[in-house]
Amino acid sequence: MTPPVSRGFLGRRQPAATAGRLPPGQYETRDFPVLSAGPTPRTPLAVWDFTLRGADGRSARWTWDEFVALPRETITKDIHCVTKWSKFGTVWEGISVDTLLSEAAAKGVEPSPYVLARSDGGYTTNLPLADVTGGKAWVAFMYDGAPLAPEHGGPARLLVPHLYFWKSAKWVRELRLMESDAPGFWESLGYHNYGDPWREQRYAGDE
Ligand SMILES: Nc1nc2c(c(=O)[nH]1)N[C@H]1C(S)=C(S)[C@@H](COP(=O)(O)O)O[C@H]1N2
Ligand SMILES: [Mo]
Predict the structure, then answer these.
(1) Which domain holds residue 92?
(2) Which ligand 1 atom minimizes the distance to the CA of 170?
(3) Residue 15 placed within a domain
(4) Per residue in 122-148, pLDDT tens?
C-alpha cells in the first residue's frame, strides 16, 4: 500500500533534496536578498554597451541589441553570498564569457591570466581567467524568465556562481583582461582574493 503523502512529509524531505548543496557556514533562503554597496545605477539600454578589453588595449564592444543577439544560454545554479545566505536553483539567461572571448578574438583580443570586472557605479571585482572560462561564468540579463531587475544588477550582471556572490558584479559594463592580478572593491577591503564558498574563503587570511 502506498502511504499518503502529507505536506509535513514533503516538508521534511526538503533537507534530503538539498543535501550536499550548502557550503560550510551557509543557510538556505527562498528570498532573493539585495546587497548593494551603493545606489542602483540606471543606464538606459540605448547607451548601454559592453566591452571586453585585452591587456594590450585592443577591445571588442557590443551595443545592447548586439549583445542580446549573441548565442545565449539558460543557466540553473545555486548561489552563495558571503553574508551566509545561499539560494538554490536560480535560473538565468545570458551570454557565456567563453562566447564573448571567442567573438572578441576576431577583433584581436587575446586572453590574459586575470580579469577585472567593472560596473556602472564604480564597483570592481577580480577573477582568474580560468574561473570565468570553461562554462563557469556568464553575463546574465534575464532572471526567472524576466529581464533582470535593476536592484539585482539589470540590465546585465556577471554571474560566477561557483564563487561567493560578490564576484558576480551587478551592472557590469566591462571585462578587462590583465597580465597580473589586482584586487577589486571588496577584495581591497579585506575580503578574500578568490572566494571559494566550499573552502569558506570569506576574508583575506582564510586559507
Ligand atoms: N556593482 C555591484 N555588484 C555587486 C555588489 C555591489 O555592491 N555592486 N554586491 C555584491 C554582493 S556582496 C553580492 S552578495 C551580490 C548581491 O546580489 P543581489 O543583490 O542580486 O542579491 O552582488 C554582488 N555584486
Ligand atoms: Mo555578498
Answers:
(1) 48-199
(2) 3
(3) no
(4) 999 999 999 999 999 999 999 999 999
